[in-house]
Amino acid sequence: MTIRSYRNISPTFDNSVYIDDSAVLVGDIELGEQSSIWPLVAGRGDVNVIRIGRRTNVQDGSVLHVTRKSRQNPTGFPLIIGDDVTVGHKCMLHGCELGNRILVGMGAIIMDGAVVQDDVFIGAGSLVAPNKILESGFLYVGNPALKKRRLKDSEMAFLKQSAVNYVELSREYLEQ
Q1: 78-92 burial, b if ≥16 CB within 10 A, otherwise e?
Q2: In this structure, which CATH number among 1.25.40.20, 2.160.10.10, 3.40.640.10, 1.20.1270.20 belongs to the domain 2-175?
Q3: Which of 3, 6, 32, 93 could disulfide-pair with 46, CB 3.0 to 4.6 Å?
Q4: Degrees (nearest 5) of the Cα angle 143, 149, 154?
Q5: Which residues in the chain land under pLDDT 50?
């Protein structure tokens, strides 16, 4: 794996975290326990911070980035991802905030300042516009992402199960 410092700050994580050898993580990134970063993920915590919660997985080819601080936006936009989140293949998460138990479908893009509350499904290929708030308990789809319907009980259960599945898979990779 490629773990690089930026301005003497390096990514931090414990030995329960799986990071694929082809992933690149740079700068001020913190990974929570039992999280996983899969092949070809690029994360740049250079001009702001990236915080990833526990049991969260970021799948193949996804990009994690932030927005710098400025006079117009003194805090910039860090990237904050909660616990038990599944980020599908080839997603772009840019300076947004994701709560807990979220599934971000393949190829989705979530832009600066967007906030995704807990227990949300974001459909594959969806675009979450800057500063948009996605309410807890719903499925969002489309470009731009629109609220489609309330999540079913089985879908709510799957949000947590998806994270558990990736924790188990990452254990197998760590044991090789």
Answers
A1: bbbbbbbbbbbbbbb
A2: 2.160.10.10
A3: 6
A4: 115
A5: none
